[in-house]
């Protein structure tokens, strides 16, 4: 085989990042997402997979078809959809985070499993409808460390049995749509306090400890036929003191491939992440990952360098051509499992049936939100003159929509809105995060709404325990009207133990608009709220 043909075969095993938007100017992360010119070239040169983020569901449907034409062959088209298509693409259905389902499961096992399976079904069907064929889900990590900034609500629980039961249910739901799944992040990212997007986490469990806990959900998903397993960028010094799991033969080949007898696709997490790219070049990381036993290489920092280096490794005999053949065969085998890749079921082509499906998904999402919300006391909060709705957010995108209920609904009943954000003016007294500068905020009573959750890249901003002291001090000062927490269950549990039970307290694992609306309608005078919102909307109408 000449080098040019070999390079095309090697390129098939790489996955690059692209925007779901059609125009280069619309890219949300241009440093990570290939331009259209580069993307077209790479697909024509044989690159076999694309991971998407951003855009509307309709734009992505068009985009997937364009990319297939550029490639001229079957592609793996995927996204990190862990909470519904709407998590990544505008217009899609959003579900509550998996940790919220785990909380339902604790109260009612049967209901939790039923919900997880339906989420899998709705997510897969909707994803397939817009052109995707591979869900990078479910997360199989067990979040047994409450300080974990990156897995957190993405996990299906804090106990092995819970995560095992719910991820298997999700897998069953997805499998009904013949779309590929991915168990991640092997062998378990739950017990870390470092985000692998930012640095390399070290987890000091030995193999016997992993087998008794972290590996249980992965083993169950493998037995149930999960199509792929993603390796996390994690260092386990008691198993391999030198290499992170992504580059470790002990963890990829000896443990996953041989001991677990897994013959599906093994994919790396994104090589652009700092856990790998801080120490290894794109070329070296790609060669080492493949040599460790990985089949598909996700998002190297320099795609051409990575393809060329791996091609050289095969051409020189450093890695056998047999390994290349096996990985390409595994990829083909999984693609062959995807039914009707270019066509939906006949009944799903009709717009009325398609719309009914989306309405059903939306209603189901709202019903889960209702099941997941906790309100203590069900006390109605009424605003007086100068009362304040104080909101902490960590992402301005959360309030970019005019209809942001956490702002609009309190404002409708008389609250004055104030937003705390890392880039805003500090609200803290002498930079001490235990006390608010109340003189600057105002002299009214305060409704506190906190949007807090662990997620990629949040880093130290995830730690919000100072709010426990802030809220207690507001209670002592008799300035506290109530608290709503969206996202983190750990902060909610701590605050619940701290403040008097007479203080209104509410919690939702979800931060989306429907969750805000449901929770605020339960603690604010809902009839007044709706009337005021309708009046404001009619006044703002323009042609």
Outline the structure in words:
This protein is an alpha/beta fold. The protein contains 20 helices and 16 strands. The protein has helices at 3-11, 36-44, 57-71, 98-107, 109-129, 160-175, 207-212, 215-223, 249-259, 274-277, 282-292, 303-315, 321-337, 351-372, 405-412, 438-441, 466-476, 489-498, 513-523, 526-540, and strands at residues 14-19, 49-53, 76-79, 134-135, 182-186, 228-231, 265-268, 297-298, 374-376, 388-392, 416-420, 428-429, 432-436, 446-452, 480-487, 505-508. The radius of gyration is 24 Å and the shape is globular.
Summarize the structure.
By secondary structure, the chain is of the alpha/beta class.
Number of strands: 16
**Biggest pleated-sheet summary:** 6 strands, mixed
> Treating each run of at least 4 consecutive H or I residues as one helix, how many helices?
20
- The helix fraction, in percent, is 40-55%
Weakly predicted, low-confidence segments: 341-345
Structural class: alpha/beta
End-to-end Cα distance: 64 Å
Overall average pLDDT: 93
Residue fraction in strands: 5-15%
Strand order of the largest sheet: 9-16-15-14-10-11
For the CA atoms, what is the radius of gyration? Answer: 24 Å
Overall spatial form: globular
């Amino acid at each position: 085989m000449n080098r040019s043909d070999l390079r095309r075969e090697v390129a098939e095993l790489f996955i690059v990042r692209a925007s779901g938007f059609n125009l280069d100017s619309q890219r949300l992360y241009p440093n990570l997402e290939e331009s259209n010119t580069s993307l077209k070239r790479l697909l024509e040169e044989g690159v076999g997979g694309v991971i998407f983020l951003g855009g509307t569901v309709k734009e992505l449907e068009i985009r997937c078809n364009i990319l297939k034409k550029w490639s001229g062959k079957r592609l793996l088209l995927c996204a990190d959809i862990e909470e519904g298509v709407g998590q990544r693409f505008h217009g899609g259905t959003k579900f509550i985070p998996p940790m919220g389902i785990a909380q339902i499961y604790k109260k009612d096992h049967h209901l939790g499993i039923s919900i997880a399976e339906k989420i899998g079904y709705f997510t897969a069907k909707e994803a397939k409808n817009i052109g995707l064929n591979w869900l990078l889900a479910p997360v199989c990590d067990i979040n047994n460390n409450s300080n974990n900034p990156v897995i957190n609500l993405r996990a299906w629980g804090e106990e092995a049995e819970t995560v095992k039961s719910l991820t298997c249910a999700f897998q069953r739901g997805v499998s009904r749509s013949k779309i590929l799944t991915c168990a991640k992040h092997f062998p378990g990212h739950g017990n870390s306090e470092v985000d692998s997007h930012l640095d390399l986490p070290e987890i000091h469990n030995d193999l016997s400890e992993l087998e008794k806990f972290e590996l249980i959900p992965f083993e169950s998903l493998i037995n149930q036929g999960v199509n792929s397993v993603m390796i996390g960028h994690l260092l386990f010094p008691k198993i391999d003191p030198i290499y992170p799991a992504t580059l470790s033969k002990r963890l990829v080949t000896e443990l996953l491939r041989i001991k677990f007898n897994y013959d599906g696709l093994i994919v790396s997490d994104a090589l652009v992440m700092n856990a790998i790219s801080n120490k290894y070049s794109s070329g070296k990381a790609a060669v080492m990952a493949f040599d460790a036993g990985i089949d598909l290489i996700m998002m190297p920092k320099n795609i051409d360098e990575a393809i060329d280096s791996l091609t050289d490794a095969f051409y020189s005999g450093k890695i056998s051509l047999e390994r290349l053949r096996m990985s390409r065969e595994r990829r083909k085998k999984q693609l062959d499992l995807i039914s009707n890749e270019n066509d939906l079921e006949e009944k799903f082509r009709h717009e009325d049936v398609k719309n009914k499906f989306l309405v059903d998904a939306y209603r189901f999402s709202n019903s889960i939100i209702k099941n997941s919300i906790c309100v203590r006391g069900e006390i109605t909060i009424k605003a007086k003159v100068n009362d304040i709705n104080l909101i902490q957010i960590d992402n301005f995108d959360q309030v970019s929509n005019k209809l942001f209920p956490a702002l609009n609904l309190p404002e409708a009943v008389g609250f004055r809105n104030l937003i705390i954000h890392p880039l805003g003016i500090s609200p803290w007294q002498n930079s001490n995060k235990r006390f608010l500068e109340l003189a600057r905020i105002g002299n009214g009573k305060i409704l506190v709404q906190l949007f807090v959750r662990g997620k990629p890249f949040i880093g130290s901003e995830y730690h919000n325990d100072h709010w426990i002291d802030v809220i207690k001090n507001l209670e002592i000062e008799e300035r506290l009207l109530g608290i709503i927490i969206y996202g983190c269950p750990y902060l909610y549990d701590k605050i619940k133990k701290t403040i008097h039970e007479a203080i209104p307290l509410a919690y939702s694992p979800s931060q989306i608009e429907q969750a805000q609306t449901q929770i605020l309608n339960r603690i604010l005078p809902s009839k007044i709220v709706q009337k005021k919102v309708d009046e404001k909307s009619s006044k703002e109408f323009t042609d």
